[in-house]
């Protein structure tokens, strides 16, 4: 019998199964973390001053108009509750509304007039990108570029009611047409 096979066969079956399961979970977590980080414009040349892709761009989204998007074309959103001094979307809120961040000391980039409105604020999440002082987020229910399912969306986390709108080049938080998605209290399964 092969020495490796002999050693493996002496490890109890439940331990081998657990080891494989842990390996699969770690691999999945690493893949999700990398995908989220890349979509958020951090690392890998997808954002910051050294990358070729702009952290923030402007795109036209059907039913909404011209909005800010991240380097993957995902619509960026602002909410009515974050303030210059305090980030209200934390914890379970960020499961659905993921902060747009930049890594290290990089700075967010954009083309044209949009770049003058960009900034960075250090939050518990990291270095989060702002536009005219408003923190920017993506929405997990937008499954591809060109969607704005979070536009004019209302939800609640930890007793705080939020209204979300797509970020616009003007920097004003104005709700879009009523044809966009809306929810009366967090359609996420009780968060």
Entry summary:
The protein has 191 residues and is an alpha+beta fold. The protein has helices at residues 3-10, 13-39, 93-96; strands spanning 56-61, 65-70, 77-79, 97-99, 101-102, 118-123, 126-131, 134-135, 137-139, 153-157, 160-166. The protein has 3 helices and 11 strands, in the order ααβββαββββββββ.
Explain what this protein looks like in three dimensions.
The structure is a single chain. The protein is globular. A hairpin with a 2-residue loop joins strand 7 and strand 8. The chain contains three helices and eleven strands, in the order H-H-E-E-E-H-E-E-E-E-E-E-E-E. The chain folds into two domains: 3-39; 56-166, no CATH class. Strands 5, 6, 7 and 8 form a four-stranded antiparallel beta sheet that branches. Strands 3-11-10 form a three-stranded antiparallel beta sheet, with no helix packed on it. Strands 1-2 form a two-stranded antiparallel ribbon. It is of the alpha+beta class and 191 residues long.
